[in-house]
Protein backbone atom coordinates (compact mmCIF):
# COMPACT_ATOMS: atom_id res chain seq x y z
CA UNK A 1 0.00 0.00 0.00
CA UNK A 2 1.51 3.29 -1.02
CA UNK A 3 0.39 6.89 -0.85
CA UNK A 4 -0.13 8.35 -4.29
CA UNK A 5 -0.11 12.02 -5.11
CA UNK A 6 -2.45 12.51 -8.04
CA UNK A 7 -2.26 15.60 -10.23
CA UNK A 8 -5.57 17.38 -10.77
CA UNK A 9 -7.04 20.68 -11.94
CA UNK A 10 -9.67 22.76 -10.12
CA UNK A 11 -13.42 22.58 -10.74
CA UNK A 12 -15.07 25.99 -10.72
CA UNK A 13 -18.37 24.78 -9.22
CA UNK A 14 -17.45 23.41 -5.79
CA UNK A 15 -18.83 26.18 -3.60
CA UNK A 16 -20.71 24.66 -0.63
CA UNK A 17 -24.33 25.86 -0.35
CA UNK A 18 -26.74 26.02 2.58
CA UNK A 19 -25.66 22.55 3.65
CA UNK A 20 -22.52 21.27 1.93
CA UNK A 21 -21.73 20.63 -1.71
CA UNK A 22 -24.70 19.19 -3.65
CA UNK A 23 -24.55 18.22 -7.29
CA UNK A 24 -25.97 15.72 -9.70
CA UNK A 25 -24.48 12.24 -9.30
CA UNK A 26 -23.06 12.54 -12.81
CA UNK A 27 -21.14 15.64 -11.77
CA UNK A 28 -19.68 13.79 -8.79
CA UNK A 29 -18.77 10.89 -11.07
CA UNK A 30 -16.38 13.01 -13.13
CA UNK A 31 -12.77 11.89 -12.63
CA UNK A 32 -11.20 13.63 -9.60
CA UNK A 33 -14.41 15.54 -8.70
CA UNK A 34 -15.11 14.01 -5.29
CA UNK A 35 -11.37 13.66 -4.58
CA UNK A 36 -10.77 17.36 -5.28
CA UNK A 37 -13.46 18.38 -2.84
CA UNK A 38 -12.36 15.98 -0.09
CA UNK A 39 -8.73 17.09 -0.44
CA UNK A 40 -9.85 20.73 -0.35
CA UNK A 41 -11.63 20.01 2.93
CA UNK A 42 -8.51 18.38 4.39
CA UNK A 43 -6.26 21.15 3.06
CA UNK A 44 -8.30 23.85 4.76
CA UNK A 45 -8.10 22.13 8.18
CA UNK A 46 -5.19 22.16 10.60
CA UNK A 47 -4.15 19.74 13.27
CA UNK A 48 -5.97 16.54 12.35
CA UNK A 49 -2.87 14.34 12.22
CA UNK A 50 -3.41 11.53 14.70
CA UNK A 51 -7.09 12.42 15.11
CA UNK A 52 -10.41 10.70 14.40
CA UNK A 53 -12.81 11.36 11.51
CA UNK A 54 -16.45 10.18 11.39
CA UNK A 55 -17.82 9.12 8.00
CA UNK A 56 -21.27 8.01 6.91
CA UNK A 57 -24.14 8.85 4.67
CA UNK A 58 -27.81 8.41 3.96
CA UNK A 59 -27.33 5.34 1.76
CA UNK A 60 -28.09 7.08 -1.50
CA UNK A 61 -26.58 6.11 -4.85
CA UNK A 62 -22.77 6.67 -4.82
CA UNK A 63 -22.59 6.57 -0.99
CA UNK A 64 -20.50 3.41 -0.83
CA UNK A 65 -18.10 4.45 -3.59
CA UNK A 66 -17.40 7.86 -2.07
CA UNK A 67 -16.90 6.32 1.37
CA UNK A 68 -14.07 4.21 -0.06
CA UNK A 69 -12.50 7.33 -1.58
CA UNK A 70 -12.78 9.20 1.72
CA UNK A 71 -11.22 6.29 3.65
CA UNK A 72 -8.23 6.01 1.34
CA UNK A 73 -7.74 9.80 1.30
CA UNK A 74 -8.08 10.10 5.08
CA UNK A 75 -5.39 7.42 5.45
CA UNK A 76 -3.12 9.20 2.97
CA UNK A 77 -3.65 12.56 4.68
CA UNK A 78 -2.74 11.44 8.18
CA UNK A 79 -5.90 10.69 10.12
CA UNK A 80 -5.32 8.12 12.84
CA UNK A 81 -8.77 6.57 12.91
CA UNK A 82 -12.03 6.74 11.00
CA UNK A 83 -15.39 5.66 12.39
CA UNK A 84 -17.84 4.49 9.72
CA UNK A 85 -21.45 3.51 10.18
CA UNK A 86 -22.02 -0.11 9.17
CA UNK A 87 -22.94 -0.33 5.50
CA UNK A 88 -21.91 3.31 5.16
CA UNK A 89 -25.07 4.38 6.96
CA UNK A 90 -25.23 7.27 9.42
CA UNK A 91 -28.08 9.72 9.78
CA UNK A 92 -26.93 13.32 10.03
CA UNK A 93 -27.86 13.64 13.74
CA UNK A 94 -26.27 10.27 14.53
CA UNK A 95 -23.07 11.40 12.80
CA UNK A 96 -23.14 14.60 14.82
CA UNK A 97 -23.53 12.56 18.01
CA UNK A 98 -20.67 10.18 17.11
CA UNK A 99 -18.33 13.13 16.45
CA UNK A 100 -19.12 14.51 19.90
CA UNK A 101 -19.11 11.18 21.72
CA UNK A 102 -15.70 10.22 20.34
CA UNK A 103 -14.14 13.69 20.50
CA UNK A 104 -13.50 13.31 16.79
CA UNK A 105 -11.77 16.06 14.84
CA UNK A 106 -14.76 16.25 12.49
CA UNK A 107 -16.87 14.26 10.09
CA UNK A 108 -17.82 13.91 6.47
CA UNK A 109 -21.52 13.33 5.89
CA UNK A 110 -22.47 12.06 2.46
CA UNK A 111 -25.98 13.18 1.65
CA UNK A 112 -28.06 15.52 -0.42
CA UNK A 113 -30.70 15.36 2.31
CA UNK A 114 -34.21 15.92 0.93
CA UNK A 115 -33.02 15.93 -2.70
CA UNK A 116 -33.86 12.78 -4.70
CA UNK A 117 -31.23 10.05 -5.18
CA UNK A 118 -30.21 7.69 -7.98
CA UNK A 119 -27.89 7.76 -10.99
CA UNK A 120 -29.65 10.78 -12.50
CA UNK A 121 -30.32 12.55 -9.23
CA UNK A 122 -28.34 14.20 -6.46
CA UNK A 123 -25.39 13.52 -4.20
CA UNK A 124 -23.66 15.66 -1.61
CA UNK A 125 -20.73 15.97 0.78
CA UNK A 126 -20.79 18.04 3.93
CA UNK A 127 -18.00 18.64 6.42
CA UNK A 128 -18.85 18.90 10.12
CA UNK A 129 -16.45 20.30 12.69
CA UNK A 130 -15.46 18.98 16.11
CA UNK A 131 -18.57 20.25 17.91
CA UNK A 132 -20.58 17.92 15.65
CA UNK A 133 -22.14 20.74 13.66
CA UNK A 134 -21.88 21.85 10.04
CA UNK A 135 -18.74 23.81 9.29
CA UNK A 136 -19.33 27.53 9.83
CA UNK A 137 -19.04 29.94 6.91
CA UNK A 138 -15.41 30.79 7.50
CA UNK A 139 -14.54 27.10 7.08
CA UNK A 140 -16.74 26.57 4.02
CA UNK A 141 -15.27 29.74 2.49
CA UNK A 142 -11.76 28.36 3.02
CA UNK A 143 -12.78 25.01 1.49
CA UNK A 144 -14.22 26.79 -1.52
CA UNK A 145 -11.10 28.92 -1.97
CA UNK A 146 -8.99 25.76 -1.91
CA UNK A 147 -11.14 24.05 -4.57
CA UNK A 148 -10.20 26.87 -6.95
CA UNK A 149 -6.44 26.37 -6.61
CA UNK A 150 -6.00 22.66 -5.89
CA UNK A 151 -3.46 20.89 -8.10
CA UNK A 152 -3.11 17.46 -6.48
CA UNK A 153 -4.65 15.12 -3.93
CA UNK A 154 -3.33 12.28 -1.82
CA UNK A 155 -4.87 8.83 -1.82
CA UNK A 156 -3.76 5.44 -0.60
CA UNK A 157 -3.38 2.78 -3.24
CA UNK A 158 -5.29 0.00 -1.47
CA UNK A 159 -8.13 -2.45 -1.86
CA UNK A 160 -11.62 -1.41 -0.74
CA UNK A 161 -12.34 -1.75 2.96
CA UNK A 162 -15.14 -4.05 4.13
CA UNK A 163 -17.66 -1.59 5.57
CA UNK A 164 -20.44 -4.11 6.07
CA UNK A 165 -19.30 -6.00 9.14
CA UNK A 166 -18.81 -4.41 12.54
CA UNK A 167 -15.20 -4.43 13.61
CA UNK A 168 -11.78 -2.84 13.33
CA UNK A 169 -9.49 -3.05 10.33
CA UNK A 170 -6.26 -1.46 9.23
CA UNK A 171 -5.86 0.77 6.20
CA UNK A 172 -2.23 1.81 5.83
CA UNK A 173 -1.33 3.48 9.13
CA UNK A 174 -4.97 4.26 9.86
CA UNK A 175 -7.56 2.27 11.80
CA UNK A 176 -11.05 1.93 10.33
CA UNK A 177 -13.77 1.09 12.84
CA UNK A 178 -17.10 -0.04 11.48
CA UNK A 179 -19.70 0.79 14.13
CA UNK A 180 -23.39 0.17 14.67
CA UNK A 181 -25.01 3.30 13.20
CA UNK A 182 -27.98 3.23 15.58
CA UNK A 183 -26.86 2.05 19.05
CA UNK A 184 -25.17 5.17 20.45
CA UNK A 185 -27.91 7.40 19.04
CA UNK A 186 -30.69 5.30 20.57
CA UNK A 187 -28.91 5.43 23.96
CA UNK A 188 -28.82 9.22 23.76
CA UNK A 189 -32.56 9.33 23.05
CA UNK A 190 -33.23 7.12 26.10
CA UNK A 191 -31.35 9.64 28.25
CA UNK A 192 -33.39 12.59 27.00
CA UNK A 193 -36.91 11.20 27.01
CA UNK A 194 -39.23 9.29 29.32
CA UNK A 195 -39.30 6.06 27.34
CA UNK A 196 -41.36 4.24 29.95
CA UNK A 197 -44.14 6.85 29.80
CA UNK A 198 -44.17 6.71 25.98
CA UNK A 199 -44.09 2.90 26.08
CA UNK A 200 -47.06 2.89 28.48
CA UNK A 201 -48.98 5.27 26.21
CA UNK A 202 -48.40 3.00 23.23
CA UNK A 203 -49.27 -0.10 25.25
CA UNK A 204 -52.49 1.68 26.22
CA UNK A 205 -53.60 1.86 22.59
CA UNK A 206 -52.00 5.06 21.27
CA UNK A 207 -51.18 4.49 17.59
CA UNK A 208 -48.51 6.05 15.44
CA UNK A 209 -47.09 5.92 11.94
CA UNK A 210 -43.56 6.97 11.01
CA UNK A 211 -42.65 7.31 7.32
CA UNK A 212 -38.91 6.87 6.75
CA UNK A 213 -39.45 7.57 3.03
CA UNK A 214 -37.04 4.72 2.09
CA UNK A 215 -34.25 6.86 3.49
CA UNK A 216 -31.80 6.70 6.35
CA UNK A 217 -34.14 6.80 9.36
CA UNK A 218 -35.55 3.33 8.73
CA UNK A 219 -33.11 1.47 11.03
CA UNK A 220 -33.26 4.23 13.64
CA UNK A 221 -37.04 4.36 13.67
CA UNK A 222 -37.46 0.58 13.85
CA UNK A 223 -35.03 0.41 16.79
CA UNK A 224 -36.55 3.32 18.70
CA UNK A 225 -40.28 3.15 17.97
CA UNK A 226 -40.83 -0.57 17.38
CA UNK A 227 -38.13 -2.25 19.47
CA UNK A 228 -37.56 0.11 22.40
CA UNK A 229 -41.02 1.72 22.63
CA UNK A 230 -43.06 -1.33 21.70
CA UNK A 231 -44.99 0.05 18.72
CA UNK A 232 -46.21 -2.82 16.52
CA UNK A 233 -44.20 -3.94 13.51
CA UNK A 234 -45.29 -1.89 10.52
CA UNK A 235 -45.42 1.35 12.51
CA UNK A 236 -42.38 2.38 10.47
CA UNK A 237 -43.38 2.80 6.83
CA UNK A 238 -40.80 2.58 4.00
CA UNK A 239 -38.19 1.56 6.56
CA UNK A 240 -35.46 0.18 4.30
CA UNK A 241 -32.94 2.76 3.02
CA UNK A 242 -32.82 2.49 -0.78
CA UNK A 243 -30.20 4.10 -3.07
CA UNK A 244 -32.95 5.87 -5.01
CA UNK A 245 -35.45 6.24 -2.12
CA UNK A 246 -37.90 4.19 -4.17
CA UNK A 247 -37.96 6.95 -6.82
CA UNK A 248 -39.48 9.39 -4.34
CA UNK A 249 -38.15 12.70 -3.07
CA UNK A 250 -37.21 11.98 0.54
CA UNK A 251 -38.66 15.35 1.48
CA UNK A 252 -41.15 15.22 4.35
CA UNK A 253 -43.72 17.71 3.19
CA UNK A 254 -47.34 17.50 2.19
CA UNK A 255 -46.46 16.86 -1.44
CA UNK A 256 -43.84 14.14 -1.08
CA UNK A 257 -45.13 12.54 2.13
CA UNK A 258 -48.57 12.24 0.59
CA UNK A 259 -49.00 8.61 1.60
CA UNK A 260 -48.60 9.51 5.25
CA UNK A 261 -50.77 12.60 4.92
CA UNK A 262 -53.64 10.64 3.36
CA UNK A 263 -53.39 8.06 6.13
CA UNK A 264 -53.50 10.75 8.81
CA UNK A 265 -56.57 12.38 7.27
CA UNK A 266 -58.50 9.10 6.86
CA UNK A 267 -61.36 8.28 9.25
CA UNK A 268 -59.38 5.55 11.02
CA UNK A 269 -56.14 7.55 11.18
CA UNK A 270 -53.48 6.77 13.78
CA UNK A 271 -53.20 9.20 16.68
CA UNK A 272 -49.86 10.53 15.52
CA UNK A 273 -47.93 10.58 12.25
CA UNK A 274 -44.45 11.73 11.36
CA UNK A 275 -41.92 11.52 8.56
CA UNK A 276 -38.26 12.28 8.13
CA UNK A 277 -36.03 13.12 5.18
CA UNK A 278 -33.11 11.57 3.27
CA UNK A 279 -30.52 12.06 6.01
CA UNK A 280 -32.85 11.96 9.03
CA UNK A 281 -32.51 15.52 10.27
CA UNK A 282 -35.97 16.77 9.36
CA UNK A 283 -39.38 15.96 10.79
CA UNK A 284 -42.92 16.35 9.57
CA UNK A 285 -45.59 16.17 12.26
CA UNK A 286 -49.20 15.31 11.46
CA UNK A 287 -51.64 14.58 14.24
CA UNK A 288 -54.83 12.68 13.62
CA UNK A 289 -56.62 14.98 11.14
CA UNK A 290 -54.25 17.80 12.10
CA UNK A 291 -51.21 18.99 10.14
CA UNK A 292 -48.75 20.95 12.28
CA UNK A 293 -46.60 23.50 10.47
CA UNK A 294 -42.91 23.12 11.30
CA UNK A 295 -42.85 26.65 12.71
CA UNK A 296 -45.75 25.81 15.03
CA UNK A 297 -44.08 22.54 15.95
CA UNK A 298 -40.97 24.41 17.06
CA UNK A 299 -43.12 26.66 19.23
CA UNK A 300 -45.04 23.77 20.80
CA UNK A 301 -41.86 21.81 21.48
CA UNK A 302 -40.24 24.83 23.12
CA UNK A 303 -43.32 25.58 25.22
CA UNK A 304 -43.56 21.98 26.47
CA UNK A 305 -39.97 20.75 26.49
CA UNK A 306 -39.80 20.86 30.29
CA UNK A 307 -42.12 17.83 30.31
CA UNK A 308 -39.24 15.67 29.02
CA UNK A 309 -36.51 14.59 31.46
CA UNK A 310 -33.66 15.99 29.34
CA UNK A 311 -35.15 19.49 29.42
CA UNK A 312 -36.72 19.55 32.89
CA UNK A 313 -34.44 22.37 33.98
CA UNK A 314 -35.90 24.62 31.26
CA UNK A 315 -34.51 26.25 28.14
CA UNK A 316 -31.70 28.80 27.99
CA UNK A 317 -32.95 30.32 24.79
CA UNK A 318 -34.64 29.54 21.47
CA UNK A 319 -33.15 30.13 18.04
CA UNK A 320 -34.96 30.10 14.71
CA UNK A 321 -33.99 30.92 11.16
CA UNK A 322 -35.24 34.25 9.87
CA UNK A 323 -37.88 32.83 7.48
CA UNK A 324 -39.34 30.64 10.25
CA UNK A 325 -42.54 32.08 11.71
CA UNK A 326 -42.54 34.13 14.87
CA UNK A 327 -44.61 31.54 16.78
CA UNK A 328 -41.54 30.54 18.82
CA UNK A 329 -40.86 34.21 19.64
CA UNK A 330 -44.06 34.36 21.66
CA UNK A 331 -43.08 31.27 23.61
CA UNK A 332 -39.63 32.74 24.34
CA UNK A 333 -41.25 35.95 25.50
CA UNK A 334 -43.55 34.11 27.86
CA UNK A 335 -40.73 31.96 29.21
CA UNK A 336 -38.60 35.06 29.67
CA UNK A 337 -35.72 33.67 27.62
CA UNK A 338 -33.91 35.11 24.59
CA UNK A 339 -34.94 34.41 21.01
CA UNK A 340 -32.24 34.46 18.30
CA UNK A 341 -33.02 34.99 14.62
CA UNK A 342 -30.37 33.48 12.36
CA UNK A 343 -29.92 33.00 8.60
CA UNK A 344 -31.20 29.81 6.98
CA UNK A 345 -29.10 26.69 7.61
CA UNK A 346 -28.09 24.79 10.72
CA UNK A 347 -24.50 26.05 10.64
CA UNK A 348 -25.64 29.29 12.25
CA UNK A 349 -27.03 27.58 15.37
CA UNK A 350 -23.78 25.85 16.41
CA UNK A 351 -22.18 28.84 18.12
CA UNK A 352 -25.35 29.65 20.08
CA UNK A 353 -25.63 26.05 21.26
CA UNK A 354 -21.92 25.84 22.14
CA UNK A 355 -22.16 29.07 24.12
CA UNK A 356 -25.16 27.81 26.08
CA UNK A 357 -27.27 30.69 24.75
CA UNK A 358 -29.93 28.51 23.10
CA UNK A 359 -31.27 25.05 23.93
CA UNK A 360 -33.80 24.49 21.15
CA UNK A 361 -33.48 25.58 17.51
CA UNK A 362 -35.71 25.25 14.50
CA UNK A 363 -36.42 26.07 10.90
CA UNK A 364 -39.60 26.35 8.87
CA UNK A 365 -38.28 23.63 6.56
CA UNK A 366 -39.17 20.91 9.07
CA UNK A 367 -35.99 21.00 11.09
CA UNK A 368 -35.90 21.10 14.87
CA UNK A 369 -33.18 20.13 17.27
CA UNK A 370 -31.50 20.92 20.56
CA UNK A 371 -28.15 21.07 22.26
CA UNK A 372 -28.00 17.24 22.45
CA UNK A 373 -26.21 17.31 19.05
CA UNK A 374 -25.28 20.10 16.62
CA UNK A 375 -27.66 19.16 13.80
CA UNK A 376 -31.38 19.15 13.46
CA UNK A 377 -32.82 15.81 14.39
CA UNK A 378 -35.98 14.22 13.01
CA UNK A 379 -36.37 11.25 15.37
CA UNK A 380 -35.57 13.50 18.35
CA UNK A 381 -38.41 15.87 17.42
CA UNK A 382 -40.86 12.98 17.11
CA UNK A 383 -39.79 11.62 20.51
CA UNK A 384 -40.22 15.01 22.13
CA UNK A 385 -43.73 15.22 20.70
CA UNK A 386 -44.48 11.70 21.98
CA UNK A 387 -43.09 12.57 25.41
CA UNK A 388 -45.29 15.68 25.52
CA UNK A 389 -48.36 13.70 24.43
CA UNK A 390 -47.63 11.06 27.08
CA UNK A 391 -47.22 13.70 29.79
CA UNK A 392 -50.25 15.78 28.83
CA UNK A 393 -52.44 12.80 27.96
CA UNK A 394 -54.17 14.64 25.17
CA UNK A 395 -54.27 14.79 21.36
CA UNK A 396 -52.29 16.81 18.82
CA UNK A 397 -55.47 18.68 17.85
CA UNK A 398 -56.07 19.68 21.46
CA UNK A 399 -52.46 20.74 21.97
CA UNK A 400 -52.59 22.98 18.91
CA UNK A 401 -55.92 24.54 19.90
CA UNK A 402 -54.59 25.21 23.38
CA UNK A 403 -51.35 26.65 22.00
CA UNK A 404 -53.11 29.09 19.69
CA UNK A 405 -55.56 30.08 22.42
CA UNK A 406 -52.57 30.95 24.61
CA UNK A 407 -50.24 32.61 22.12
CA UNK A 408 -52.32 33.47 19.05
CA UNK A 409 -51.67 31.85 15.68
CA UNK A 410 -49.02 32.54 13.07
CA UNK A 411 -50.64 31.49 9.81
CA UNK A 412 -47.77 30.41 7.64
CA UNK A 413 -46.90 28.90 4.26
CA UNK A 414 -43.88 28.57 2.01
CA UNK A 415 -44.31 28.75 -1.76
CA UNK A 416 -41.46 27.26 -3.80
CA UNK A 417 -40.93 28.05 -7.48
CA UNK A 418 -38.55 25.34 -8.66
CA UNK A 419 -36.21 24.99 -11.63
CA UNK A 420 -36.32 28.65 -12.67
CA UNK A 421 -33.59 29.81 -15.07
CA UNK A 422 -30.82 31.13 -12.79
CA UNK A 423 -30.54 34.50 -14.52
CA UNK A 424 -34.29 35.10 -14.17
CA UNK A 425 -34.17 34.25 -10.47
CA UNK A 426 -31.17 36.53 -9.98
CA UNK A 427 -32.94 39.33 -11.87
CA UNK A 428 -36.04 38.97 -9.68
CA UNK A 429 -33.97 39.21 -6.50
CA UNK A 430 -31.93 42.13 -7.87
CA UNK A 431 -35.09 44.07 -8.75
CA UNK A 432 -36.51 43.37 -5.31
CA UNK A 433 -33.34 44.57 -3.63
CA UNK A 434 -33.37 47.71 -5.75
CA UNK A 435 -36.92 48.45 -4.63
CA UNK A 436 -36.24 48.10 -0.90
CA UNK A 437 -35.71 51.76 -0.02
CA UNK A 438 -38.90 52.84 -1.79
CA UNK A 439 -41.15 50.27 -0.09
CA UNK A 440 -41.71 51.62 3.44
CA UNK A 441 -44.96 53.59 3.46
CA UNK A 442 -46.24 51.98 0.25
CA UNK A 443 -49.51 50.07 0.25
CA UNK A 444 -50.46 46.93 -1.65
CA UNK A 445 -52.80 43.94 -1.25
CA UNK A 446 -51.02 43.03 1.99
CA UNK A 447 -51.61 46.41 3.61
CA UNK A 448 -49.14 49.18 4.40
CA UNK A 449 -45.46 48.29 4.36
CA UNK A 450 -43.57 49.41 7.45
CA UNK A 451 -40.08 48.06 6.70
CA UNK A 452 -38.16 46.22 4.00
CA UNK A 453 -34.59 44.99 4.14
CA UNK A 454 -32.12 42.32 3.12
CA UNK A 455 -31.49 40.25 6.22
CA UNK A 456 -27.98 40.41 7.68
CA UNK A 457 -26.86 38.53 10.78
CA UNK A 458 -24.14 39.29 13.26
CA UNK A 459 -23.24 36.20 15.26
CA UNK A 460 -23.38 37.30 18.92
CA UNK A 461 -20.57 34.94 19.92
CA UNK A 462 -17.87 35.86 17.39
CA UNK A 463 -19.33 38.95 15.69
CA UNK A 464 -19.02 37.37 12.23
CA UNK A 465 -21.42 38.95 9.75
CA UNK A 466 -23.49 37.15 7.08
CA UNK A 467 -25.24 39.38 4.55
CA UNK A 468 -27.84 38.96 1.79
CA UNK A 469 -29.73 36.25 3.67
CA UNK A 470 -33.18 37.04 2.28
CA UNK A 471 -35.39 40.01 1.49
CA UNK A 472 -38.13 40.65 4.02
CA UNK A 473 -41.07 42.96 3.68
CA UNK A 474 -43.00 43.76 6.84
CA UNK A 475 -46.57 45.07 7.02
CA UNK A 476 -48.21 47.23 9.63
CA UNK A 477 -50.24 44.37 11.14
CA UNK A 478 -47.10 42.32 11.75
CA UNK A 479 -47.54 40.21 8.62
CA UNK A 480 -44.53 39.60 6.43
CA UNK A 481 -43.37 38.19 3.13
CA UNK A 482 -39.81 36.91 2.74
CA UNK A 483 -38.00 36.08 -0.52
CA UNK A 484 -34.80 34.10 -0.90
CA UNK A 485 -33.16 31.71 -3.32
CA UNK A 486 -32.50 28.14 -2.22
CA UNK A 487 -28.92 27.11 -1.59
CA UNK A 488 -29.46 23.35 -1.80
CA UNK A 489 -30.77 22.78 -5.33
CA UNK A 490 -28.83 21.26 -8.19
CA UNK A 491 -30.87 22.43 -11.17
CA UNK A 492 -31.47 26.09 -12.05
CA UNK A 493 -32.73 28.16 -9.14
CA UNK A 494 -35.53 27.75 -6.63
CA UNK A 495 -37.30 30.83 -5.33
CA UNK A 496 -38.73 30.45 -1.85
CA UNK A 497 -41.48 32.85 -0.78
CA UNK A 498 -42.33 32.69 2.92
CA UNK A 499 -45.67 34.16 3.94
CA UNK A 500 -46.78 34.84 7.49
CA UNK A 501 -49.70 36.51 9.20
CA UNK A 502 -50.24 36.70 12.92
CA UNK A 503 -53.72 36.61 14.46
CA UNK A 504 -53.98 37.34 18.19
CA UNK A 505 -55.87 35.28 20.75
CA UNK A 506 -58.97 37.42 20.20
CA UNK A 507 -58.95 36.83 16.41
CA UNK A 508 -60.13 34.01 14.17
CA UNK A 509 -57.86 31.08 15.01
CA UNK A 510 -59.66 28.55 12.83
CA UNK A 511 -59.23 29.86 9.29
CA UNK A 512 -57.95 27.82 6.39
CA UNK A 513 -54.30 28.83 5.98
CA UNK A 514 -54.74 29.60 2.27
CA UNK A 515 -57.64 31.93 3.04
CA UNK A 516 -55.79 33.65 5.85
CA UNK A 517 -52.78 34.27 3.61
CA UNK A 518 -54.50 35.11 0.30
CA UNK A 519 -53.93 38.91 0.51
CA UNK A 520 -50.25 38.37 1.28
CA UNK A 521 -49.85 35.91 -1.59
CA UNK A 522 -51.22 38.63 -3.86
CA UNK A 523 -48.83 41.13 -2.27
CA UNK A 524 -45.85 38.83 -2.97
CA UNK A 525 -46.78 38.78 -6.64
CA UNK A 526 -47.13 42.58 -6.70
CA UNK A 527 -43.77 43.05 -4.96
CA UNK A 528 -41.68 40.66 -7.04
CA UNK A 529 -43.54 40.06 -10.32
CA UNK A 530 -43.01 36.35 -9.77
CA UNK A 531 -45.13 35.38 -12.77
CA UNK A 532 -43.24 37.79 -15.01
CA UNK A 533 -39.78 36.57 -14.03
CA UNK A 534 -40.53 32.87 -13.72
CA UNK A 535 -43.29 32.34 -16.25
CA UNK A 536 -45.07 30.35 -13.54
CA UNK A 537 -48.53 31.34 -12.39
CA UNK A 538 -48.39 29.16 -9.29
CA UNK A 539 -45.72 27.62 -7.07
CA UNK A 540 -44.40 24.12 -7.73
CA UNK A 541 -44.70 23.20 -4.07
CA UNK A 542 -46.65 24.74 -1.18
CA UNK A 543 -45.68 23.64 2.30
C1 LIG B 1 -33.07 24.16 2.80
C2 LIG B 1 -33.95 24.68 3.91
C3 LIG B 1 -33.10 25.04 5.12
C4 LIG B 1 -32.28 23.82 5.53
C5 LIG B 1 -31.48 23.32 4.37
C6 LIG B 1 -30.72 22.05 4.69
O1 LIG B 1 -32.17 25.17 2.39
O2 LIG B 1 -34.70 25.78 3.49
O3 LIG B 1 -33.94 25.48 6.15
O4 LIG B 1 -31.42 24.14 6.60
O5 LIG B 1 -32.33 23.04 3.26
O6 LIG B 1 -31.58 21.08 5.16
P1 LIG B 1 -32.42 26.10 1.10
O7 LIG B 1 -31.17 26.92 0.96
O8 LIG B 1 -32.70 25.17 -0.04
O9 LIG B 1 -33.62 26.91 1.41
V1 LIG B 1 -31.34 19.48 4.73
O10 LIG B 1 -32.39 18.56 5.65
O11 LIG B 1 -31.52 19.57 3.12
O12 LIG B 1 -29.73 19.21 5.17
CO1 LIG C 1 -31.86 16.73 5.77
Overview of this structure, please?
With 543 residues, the protein is an alpha/beta fold. The chain folds into 3 domains: 2-181, Alpha-D-Glucose-1,6-Bisphosphate, Chain A, domain 3 (3-Layer(aba) Sandwich), CATH 3.40.120.10; 185-407, Alpha-D-Glucose-1,6-Bisphosphate, Chain A, domain 3 (3-Layer(aba) Sandwich), CATH 3.40.120.10; 409-542, 2-Layer Sandwich (TATA-Binding Protein). 33% of the residues lie in helices and 25% in strands. The protein has 17 helices and 27 strands. The protein has a 7-stranded mixed β-sheet, with helices on both faces. Helix 2 (33-43) crosses helix 3 (63-77). Alpha-D-glucose-1-phosphate-6-vanadate (VG1) is lined by residues 18-19, 113-114, 277, 281-282, 321, 344-346, 363, 365, 367, 486-488, 496.
**Which molecules are bound in this entry?**
alpha-D-glucose-1-phosphate-6-vanadate, cobalt (II) ion
How helical, in percent, are the residues?
Answer: 25-40%
Instruction: Let me know the CATH homologous superfamily of the largest domain.
Output: Alpha-D-Glucose-1,6-Bisphosphate, subunit A, domain 3
Total helices: the number is 17
Amino acid sequence: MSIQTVKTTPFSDQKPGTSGLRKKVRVFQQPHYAENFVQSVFDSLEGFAGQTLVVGGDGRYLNREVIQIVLKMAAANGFDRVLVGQGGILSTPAASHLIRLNSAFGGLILSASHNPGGPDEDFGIKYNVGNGGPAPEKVTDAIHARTLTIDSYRILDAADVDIDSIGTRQLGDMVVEIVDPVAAYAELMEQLFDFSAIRAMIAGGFTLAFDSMSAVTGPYAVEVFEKRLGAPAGTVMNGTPLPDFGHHHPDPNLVHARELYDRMMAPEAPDFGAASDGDGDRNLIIGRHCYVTPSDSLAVLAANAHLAPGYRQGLKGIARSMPTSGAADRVAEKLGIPLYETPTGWKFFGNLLDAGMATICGEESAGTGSDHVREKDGVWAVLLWLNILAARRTSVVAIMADHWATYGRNYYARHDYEAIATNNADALMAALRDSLTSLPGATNSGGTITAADDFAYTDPTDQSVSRNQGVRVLFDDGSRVVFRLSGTGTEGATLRVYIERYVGTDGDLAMETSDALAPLVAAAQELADIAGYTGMDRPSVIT
